[in-house]
Amino acid sequence: MNVIAALAICMVFVGCCSNVIFLELVVKEDPGAGNLATFLQFVFIAVIGFCTVGKMGTAKRNIPFKQYLMLVGFFWTSSVANNYAFDFNISMPLHMIFRAGSLMANMAMGVWILKKRYPPLKYLAVFMISAGIAICTIQSSGDVKAPRETHEDAAEEERLQFIDWLWWCLGIAILTFALFVSARMGIFQESLYAKYGKHPWEALYYTHLMPLVFWLPTAQNIVGHVKIATETPMLEVFGVSIPRQVLWLTLYVITQGLCISAVYVLTTECASLTVTLTVTLRKFVSLLFSIMYFRNPFTLGHWIGTLLVFIGTLIFTEILQNQLHYSYQLLLKRRSNNKASRIVCHRCDRLIYYLFYTNKYFK
Predict the structure, then answer these.
(1) How far apart are alpha carbons 119 and 112 in whole angstroms?
(2) Rounded Cα gap, residues 329 and 331, in angstroms
(3) Contact partners, residue 331, CB within 8 Å, separation at least 6
(4) Which burial class, exposed, middle or buried, applies to 226 when counting CB atoms under 10 A from its CB (0-12, 13-18, 19+)?
């Protein structure tokens, strides 16, 4: 691994993990600020891209404008839906677990649209991811509460809790919708790259620049949350007083740009397996931090669901298979020198064959 790849991995953990922290601080301050945060993120990356990739508007596109329109529609819809879900009583841990289920949505879209076929182990992995998300969702359904004061009247409080639960169900529907839109975008992006070549930085620039007009209908909502942000308590940073929410939003936007850039650099320097492993571990670290630092409710059921999601992800990306294959090969080399190894290998041969006979390593 070269220095650039190592630095990119470090930046993924630093940038993406801190980005999740600042996003949680933003939505805890104002649960409806997800739309504002997404808008600021798009503006920031579009401005940087205009100066670098776009070369002040003089650079020629490698992918036709019409193709970008479709890609932008998918990207804007999934981004806005994911951040807007926080306005519907969705907790940060549940949000991260749902986002980790992207492999399940990608596989479903691949089977439906591209008519792909996968080995049985892939279906097992998707089942584990789906079961993990379902368990976490069911566990979270009992802890739904909007950021409001508890009503003194028990009957009224019960009615309000039911309304909170209905809004939470709508939030789950929004997250599910965003998950499949993002998967469909991945398939469309794959077809674009196959036809016109890979131009990730150009795609990143245009997918953030072109959707800015989509926020015109929500301008009133954005202005309202900007007003809320400017009215939050003041914090002193390097001798300058700044509203607390404005600080969180600024740090969120900066770390989001750092996170996206680090992932893009990583995809150019490392194999896709390394990228997937890095991103998966980053999500797990972010989840643990959110639970411990922000004291988010997390029961035994949540832990079981989380483990199912991440183990399923590792199986789907063949990380566990790679490690098992490596250990198996080492054991085979020692077979002739160690009686115990010969016995273990003999008993494991059939098990490994039946588990991985469709895998490229054990054909």
Answers:
(1) 16
(2) 5
(3) 341, 344, 345, 348
(4) middle
Tell me which residue has tokens 């209908």: 217
d(CA 190, CA 196): 10
Hey, how many other C-beta atoms are within 10 angstroms of the C-beta on 99?
15
Question: Do the Cβ atoms of 156 and 77 come closer than 8 Å?
Answer: no
Between vectors from CA 25 to CA 19 and to CA 30, what angle results, nearest 5°? 125
CA of 278: how far to CAs of 5, 6, 23, 93, 326, in Å?
11, 11, 20, 19, 19
Average the pLDDT over each of 182-186, 205-209, 226-230 and give the range with the smallest value: 182-186
280-306: pLDDT as tens digits: 778 878 887 877 777 777 788 888 988
With H, G, I as helix, E, B as strand and everything else as coil, classify residue 242.
strand
Question: pTM for the full model?
Answer: 0.77
Specify the range with the lowest mean pLDDT, choosing from 182-196, 251-265, 283-297.
283-297
pLDDT given for residue 234 in this prediction:
95
Q: Give the separation between CA 97 and CA 102, rounded to whole angstroms.
A: 10
160, with CB counted inside 10 A (0-12, 13-18, 19+), is middle
| Helices and strands, counts by H and E, the chain | 15, 2
| 338-359 tens-digit pLDDT | 555 555 555 555 555 555 544 4
pLDDT in tens, 218-246: 899 999 999 999 999 999 998 899 999 99
Q: What is the pLDDT confidence band of residue 273, given thresholds at 50, 70 and 90?
A: low
Return d(Cα 123, Cα 114) in angstroms, integer: 16
Do residues 100 and 309 make contact, with C-beta atoms less than 8 angstroms apart? Answer: yes
